[in-house]
Each structure stands twice: as C-alpha cells, then as structure tokens.
Write a structure and sequence with these properties.
This protein is an all-alpha fold. The chain has four helices and no strands. Helix 1 crosses helix 2.
C-alpha cells in the first residue's frame, strides 16, 4: 500500500514536472533567457570595443605617432590613424553583426522547434508529403 502511494506520487510529480517544464520553456526563453542574452550581447559590444581599441585610436587621431612632431610626421600619422580607424571600425561592426545574427538565431530556436513538432505531427496544412 505504501509502495503504491510512493510510486503514484513519483509518477504524478514527474509527469507534472515534465509538463510544466515543457510549457514553461518558451516563456523562460523569451523572458529571463532573452534578458540574459541581451546583457551578454551588451557586454560583448563593450569587450569588442576594448579588443579593437577603437575609442583609443579615435581619441588619439591628432597625436603624432612615435613622437614625430614634424609637419610630415603629423600628416602621415593622421592618415595612418584614419586607415587604422576604418579597418578597426569594419572589424568592430563585423563582430557585432555576427553576434547579432547569433542572437536572432537564438531567439528563433523555439519557433523552429515548435514548427518542426507541428510539421512532423502533420498538424500544419500542406505537410502531408507526396
């Protein structure tokens, strides 16, 4: 009698837990999970700026490189810094673009999973194969 009660309680708990987790997963994905990913994306933007050192190059655009204060050194330094800034800006935006695409893909996963479930259960019109 006691064994049956424990088994029944365990089955109820597992079934309830599985159903709740399955139904709560999309809600968590688009609330707490998305909030965490957006914070991670914001930190990645700051980290990418540090790695590329874009603000340092922009801040020092008018400072001559290698301490060469002649007018030729200043002109060459300015144009070299402009080239560096353009290259680093391209790299910075490439890093941001790739991570933004990954963020969008992360957001699309539940929709894709739900679509695949409905498609494979043939609950979507037109998914009946030839």
């Amino acid at each position: 009698m006691v064994q049956r009660s424990v088994t029944l309680k365990a089955i109820r708990f597992i079934a309830k837990d599985l159903v709740f987790d399955f139904l709560y997963w999309p809600i968590w994905w688009y609330s707490s999970g998305l909030s965490g990913r957006l914070n991670q994306f914001a930190n990645l933007v700051l980290e990418a700026n540090q790695q590329v050192a874009l603000t340092v190059w922009i801040k020092n655009i008018f400072n001559p490189m290698f301490g060469d204060y002649s007018w030729q050194g200043r002109i060459i330094s300015f144009f070299m810094r402009v080239v560096q800034i353009i290259g680093r800006l391209v790299l910075f935006f490439l890093i941001i673009l790739i991570n933004f695409i990954l963020l969008l893909a992360w957001m699309a996963v539940p929709l894709f999973v739900i679509y695949q479930i409905l498609f494979n259960l043939k609950l979507i019109p037109g998914s009946y194969g030839a």
